[in-house]
Structure formats: C-alpha cells, structure tokens
C-alpha cells in the first residue's frame, strides 16, 4: 500500500498488485492479505475502465475470503459484485461454482443458467457443461435414493 501511490500510472500499479496477489496466494503467511489486494486490484481496474477485470478481481476477493474460512463474508462479497457487475458472465460462473462447492446445487443451477444468455467467449460453454454435470449428479443421486433399501421396503 505504501508503494502503490509511487506507481507512475494505474497500469504499473495494476501489474504490481498482480505480483503481490501472486505472492499472497503462494505464501501461507501472506494469504490473509489477499482479499485486500484483490479489492485494490478491483479499484485500479475500475479506474482504468476495465469492468471485466474489475469483476474478476471482485470474484477473487470473494474466493479469497472463502479460502480463509469467511463464508458469510464471501457470500456477501459475491452479492455485492453481482449487483455491481450484473453482465459479467465469468463472475456469475465463479459464483455458481461457489454455490456448488458449498452444497447449494439448486441455486448453483440457477446461477449457471444466468451465465448462458451473456455468452462471453467460452464462458457460456463452460456454464452449459458444468450445469449438465450438476444435473447428471442430481439425477444419479435421486436414482440411488429411489433404489435404496429403505425406500424399496427391503
């Protein structure tokens, strides 16, 4: 934070922040700093008019909070980011993965479906594929419950 104001421009600051984020991710003792670094990256990307990159940084904040065990803060961060960047398919895809990872398949499916009309490059294709996989997992689970001994009276 002390170095960033000395950067000659936002592009240089952004590159430095990416390097710092990489260090935070790869050094256990620095991981707690990652959400703050990602927030700063989001702000720099916004100043530069890079909305897609800003949305990515917002998702990085949420995922960093999640990895630190701050689930409620991560959820809140995703909701904030989705309100601020509603057209970011990549952000929506990462939110769907977050929901799936935390055992909310119904909301994850809704989130995957919300990505598809946005069709950002291969993001929609990834959402379709992951949605199909989640639907297949759900169908297999329903089928195994239907044939369990408790249900069949065995």
Structure description:
- This protein has 154 residues and is mainly alpha-helical.
- It has helices at 10-26, 34-47, 51-67, 71-84, 89-101, 105-115, 123-146, 149-152.
- Helix 2 packs antiparallel against helix 3 (51-67).
- The mean pLDDT is 86.
Give a short summary of the structure:
The protein is an all-alpha fold.
- List low-confidence stretches: none
Distance between the termini: 65 Å
Radius of gyration: 19 Å
Tell me the structural class: mainly alpha
What average pLDDT do the residues reach?
86
Count of DSSP-assigned helices: 8
Topology order in helix (H) and strand (E) letters: HHHHHHHH
Shape descriptor: globular
By DSSP, the count of extended strands is: 0
Strand coverage percent: under 5%
How would you characterize the largest beta sheet?
none
Residue share in helix: over 70%
């Amino acid at each position: 934070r002390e170095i960033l104001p000395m950067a000659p421009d936002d592009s240089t600051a952004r590159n430095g922040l990416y390097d710092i984020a990489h260090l935070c991710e790869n050094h256990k003792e620095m991981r707690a700093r990652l959400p703050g670094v990602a927030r700063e990256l989001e702000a720099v990307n916004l100043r530069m008019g890079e909305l897609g990159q800003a949305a990515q940084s917002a998702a990085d904040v949420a995922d960093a909070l999640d990895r630190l065990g701050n689930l409620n803060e991560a959820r809140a961060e995703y909701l904030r980011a989705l309100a601020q960047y509603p057209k970011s398919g990549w952000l929506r895809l990462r939110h769907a993965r977050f929901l799936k990872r935390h055992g909310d398949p119904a909301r994850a499916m809704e989130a995957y479906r919300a990505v598809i009309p946005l069709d950002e490059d291969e993001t929609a294709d990834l959402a379709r594929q992951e949605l199909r996989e989640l639907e297949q997992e759900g169908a297999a689970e329903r089928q195994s419950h239907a044939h369990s001994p408790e249900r069949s009276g065995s």
